[in-house]
Amino acid sequence: xxxxxxxxxxLQIHAQDRVxxxxxxxNPFVEQIAQQGISGSITLAEDNVAMAQTVxxxxxxxxxxxxxxxxxxxQPATTIxxxxxxxxxxxxxxxxxxxxxxxxxxxxxxxxxxxxGAKDRGIMSTGKRMQEYFSNLETLVIxxxxxxxxxxxxxxxxxQQAEVLHEPGIFAANRLDxxxxxxxxxxxxxxxxxALDIGCGAGFLGLHIARQASAGQVxxxxxxxxxxxxxxxxxxxxxxxxxxxxxxDGAQAVLNQRFDxxxxxxxxxxxxxxxxxIAERFIRQAAQVLKPHGRFYLVANRFLKYEPTxxxxxxxxxxxxxxxxxxxxxxxx
Length: 333
Description:
Elements: H1 2-10, E1 18-22, H2 28-35, E2 41-45, H3 49-56, E3 63-66, H4 71-74, E4 80-86, H5 93-106, E5 107-118, H6 123-134, E6 138-143, E7 146-152, H7 168-171, H8 178-186, E8 194-198, H9 204-212, E9 217-222, H10 225-238, E10 243-247, E11 259-264, E12 269-270, E13 273-274, H11 277-289, E14 290-301, H12 307-313, E15 316-322, E16 326-332
Parallel strand pairs: 1-2, 1-4, 2-3, 4-5, 8-9, 8-11, 9-10, 11-14
Antiparallel strand pairs: 5-7, 6-7, 12-13, 14-16, 15-16
Helix pairs in contact: 5-6
């Protein structure tokens, strides 16, 4: 990938440097530096549990993982020599702004921040924000619409410390989107259902099911630590006692359990690229964990062709809701 090559060509990492990767563990460059026999350390401030686990496994003695969304609440300041952000893996502007704020907090005076990204991912506006925070900015390379920008943290007395965002709701989807609303309308819950919400986000679906399945149990899972935190906070506010929230790559954490009901509103973008792979994996996992005669509900944009995968996994598949933009599919085991 071009961003990975650009980072490899421009980053200056010394043997004993402490490196901070800001929600960018999916960039192949990160695996490359994890494999190098340097004496320094790599901290993954990463939201995606699965991606973090993959990189940590390469060099568990030198690479460790912390949650991205609350880094400044959990980690000390001014301990990092080099920080890196790849804009491709930031879901929105709030994530980028937060990453710059964390870099300013974490870097030692003289420490270096590198940001790689394309114009259509906001590298120009990110550069303006870097100049505002660090009072310096350098364009290190430009190639095929991509840039690597660099900034150096000035001495402590020259830093205007930004107010750091750390509320998980900022980083997790905390509004009821149209697809989820349609799924809620089509969903049929039994009072004693044991249910699983894969990719729970802020917990709207799971908590709705828990209220109806008062004699059952609900498990909510998400690969995003910010989503898990937001769902956990929503659970506390709800007062429900028949719900648990777990970090998990899809249903990986509960593959040894069985459920009457599984629901999902899966993402279809990964690293800025449209993909059906995430939802198709959720579908296969749902079929694996459902009890006999269990039900699986999925909502998706109408143009996404998940029916063949569902038909291969379930005894019956039908459309039970939706509109011109979305469809709600029901698979029965």
